[in-house]
Amino acid sequence: MKWIDLPPIWLAGFIVCTFALGRAGIFGGVFGDWADLPGAVLVGLGVLLMLLAVVQMTRHRTTVIPHRDADALVTTGIFGLSRNPIYLGDALVLAGAVLIFGPPVACLLVPLFMLVIRQRFILPEEARLSRRFGSEFESYARRVRRWI
User: Fold this and answer.
1) pLDDT of residue 92
2) How far apart are CA 32 and CA 128, in angstroms?
């Protein structure tokens, strides 16, 4: 069951909800064709953020898999802008999907997704990083915001 509790699964579930709300049509129409381009840009930016973070974490030989202990504290590059660029990328992908598929009410799914990710993944990860890297992580956390 642990394989189900992964951020991509949560993201996929929220995207399915966005699509379903758009198809149901009971909460108003989708944003319209004008929103397709900004939605695609958000999806693209989200994927780019995720890829940059994965490349950087791979270069530092640390895990990208949640619930595992990190072997290195990555604080430079994209991690100098956000402590959680992969989760930020996920949120951008969802926001893009909302613009492309969902009605305006689906915008509420983005902060809900961010709350779920914060509780299920970010807070436990930060606790592990704090235990493992101590003052180095605490200094990093003071310097760089959790999202942006």
Assistant:
1) 98
2) 43
Residue range of the domain that includes 109: 31-143
pLDDT at 1 exceeding the cut of 80: no
pTM of the complete model: 0.94
Q: What's the sign of the alpha-carbon dihedral 90, 92, 94, 97?
A: negative
Task: Tell me, yes or no, whether 8 lies in a domain.
Answer: no
The 10s digit of each residue's pLDDT in 16-74 is: 999 999 888 777 777 878 899 999 999 999 999 999 999 999 999 999 998 899 999 99
- Decide if 90 is inside a domain: yes
Residue 17 lies in a domain: no
| Domain-located, residue 45 | yes
Domain count, the chain: 1
Instruction: Collect contacts of 135-139 with beta carbons under 8 A, ≥24 apart.
Output: 136/73, 137/73
Sequential DSSP letters for 64-124: -STTS--SS---SGGGGT-S-HHHHHHHHHHHHHHHHH--GGGGGHHHHHHHHHIIIIIHH
